[in-house]
Amino acid sequence: MIRFDNVSKTYPKQNRPALDNVSLEIEKGEFVFLVGSSGSGKSTFLRLILREERPSTGEVHVLGKDLAKLSNWKVPHMRRQLGTVFQDFRLLPNKTVGQNVAFALEVIGKPRGTIKKVVPEVLELVGLAGKQDRMPGELSGGEQQRVAIARAFVNRPMLLIADEPTGNLDPQNSVGIMKLLDRINRTGTTVLMATHDQAIVDQMRKRVIELDQGHLVRDQSRGVYGYQH
Amino acid sequence: MRAQFVMAEIWIGLRRNLTMTIAVIVSVALSLSLVGAAMLLNSQVNQMKGYWGDKVEVSIYFCNKNNQKNTKDTPNCASGEATQAQIDAVHSQLDKNPLVQKVYTETPAQAVVNFKKQFPDSPLAPYVTPDSFNNSLRVKLTNPSLYQEVASQVEGQPGVAKVDDQSAVLKPLFNLMNTAQWVALAIMVIMFGVTLLLIVNTVRVSAFSRKRETGIMRLVGASNFYVQMPFIAEAAFAAVVGAVLASGMIAVGKFVLIDMVLKKQITLISFIGWGPVIQVMPLLVVIGVGMSSLAAVLTLQKYLKV
Fold first, then answer.
1. How distant, in Å, are the alpha carbons of B33, B71, B102, B206, B291 from that of B197?
2. What does the pLDDT read at residue B2?
3. B292: CB partners within 8 A, 6+ apart
4. Residue A158 — pLDDT band, cuts 50, 70, 90?
5. What integer is the mean pLDDT of A34-62?
6. Measured between beta carbons, which residues in chain B are less than 8 angstroms from residue A82?
7. Would you state the pLDDT for residue B56?
8. What is the pLDDT of residue B66?
9. C-alpha pair distances (Å), B148 with each of B89, B105, B131, B143, B227
10. Do residues B243 and B284 lie in contact, with contact meaning Cβ atoms separated by under 8 Å?
């Protein structure tokens, strides 16, 4: 699903690499936490998978494809098989919940009939049945994140990438989001989640990958958040 | 491609950016009407050059019956209409002259045809007959400035009514119109520059104000074409409106300036009709849309990362 072979990434005008010789593999259907303090390289790791950045050295394989060999115009097609969720939700404030989810399908040219059918389905899956016509501003943070997850999942991606999805939520809403991600994982979708939330990692007991200053310092199945920093 | 969705996005974009859109439309309209004016000026010049205009430098007219009756202007014609032998004599003299590049003959019958072609709506057209014209030789020189040497050679020869320096008559007028054309072109280049900057800036602002949308589009895997299309279409739409306005301005300009004013005051010159004006209009649309789409595409390369 995802394979990093000796991947390093150094940004221009920076001495220390953001990622330093990282090699790892994530299998289909896994649920993986990516932990580490700010500046540890988590965001770079995710951006490399999305091909927002290219590695300085090493190879990144996603969904069986070497991203270095993927031509620019094929990148959008690769991204259609990935879903992405962020800490700040990134919803369109002037579109309804339903339109926000539909937007993801409209811009990849899905027919209207399909959109009409799958949008209510996915909203029900994330627990927002009946809230299709509400505006994002009228929803709680947890509900907004559910909309974002619905948008990321509506195209049934193979891989869901979540960058601190609970970062802006209270513990109760966070638990709800984690339950949802776990449910999505059980449908066969691989989930890769970067997080700072110790309680969640400790509770879920999933695989944990820890980065520190660009180095891979821990890769543990059924791990906990780890050492007190 | 969901056409309705794309159209809606374009409409939202145009409305959100209304003031800039209006500025682009006006600026496109002004620069395109200058393009159109320069083109029409060019066809006007070509029209005025007429059939012989820039092909020859010297026109030699031979005596006809009318010249014989009125020898005040053409004293050389007292002996009557020029004979074919006289014409041939002058012709062969010219052929031997090294300054002469080529000699064309024009019979009165051909002259009628050429006149009617150049002045299709002249009030005189129905009344011109071959008798109104002279046999003439039209001479192309190897060096146009040596006109005088050729003219003096044939002037006063039997049967020669008049020798005209074609360029002396028309040159000042052509110079004036050429200058006008260059001025129009220069202003046009500046206006084009301003228009391009304006389009670049409009697209930039538009791309910036829709950063969130385009960010999501990239994330969910919309193709580059889908992400960039609304911006390009916005620029192209503004250009089409601008081109239509420019076409209108040109049509009004031609009607007021040529039909209402110049045609009534200057009857000697044949002015362009509606044909060239209508031909210019689609060209303006093509130029406008091409220019603004290209500017939009180049801007997006820089400001809309895909």
1. 18, 66, 51, 14, 12
2. 67
3. B24, B28, B195, B199, B235, B236, B238, B239
4. very high
5. 93
6. 221
7. 67
8. 74
9. 20, 20, 29, 11, 69
10. yes
Q: Return the higher-pLDDT residue of A110 and B7.
A: A110
User: Which amino acid is it at A11?
Assistant: Y
DSSP string for residues in A162-196: EESTTTTS-HHHHHHHHHHHHHHHHTT-EEEEE--
Q: Pick from B201, B203, B249: which is nearest to B30 by CA?
A: B249
Residue of A nearest to B215 (CA): A90
Q: CA-based angle A10:A66:A58, to the nearest 5?
A: 30
Contact assessment for residue A222 and residue A51, using Cβ atoms and an 8 Å cutoff: no
Residues of chain B predicted below pLDDT 50: none
Tokens of B117: 């072609």
Tokens of A28: 């289909």
Q: Is A79 on the interface with B (CB under 8 A)?
A: yes
pLDDT of the residue at B18? 85
Give me B304's structure tokens. Answer: 């809309």
Cα-only R_g, chain A:
18
Q: What ipTM describes this predicted complex?
A: 0.85
Class at the top of the CATH hierarchy for domain A1-81+157-229: alpha beta
Q: Which residues of B touch A104 (CB under 8 A)?
A: 216, 220
Nearest to A86 by CA among A185, A200, A193, A209: A193
Residues A155 and A189 sit within 8 Å (Cβ to Cβ)? no
Where does residue B195 rank: exposed (0-12), middle (13-18), buried (19+ CB within 10 A)?
A: buried
pLDDT per position as a tens digit, A71-87: 888 899 999 999 999 99
pLDDT at A91: 94
List Cα–Cα distances, A28 to A73, A160, B68, in angstroms: 25, 11, 108
CB contact under 8 A, A92 and B2: no
Domain positions in chain A: 1-81+157-229, 92-156
Nearest 5°: the CA angle B80, B81, B86 is 110
A78 CB within 8 Å of a chain B CB: yes
CB contact under 8 A, A107 and B226: yes
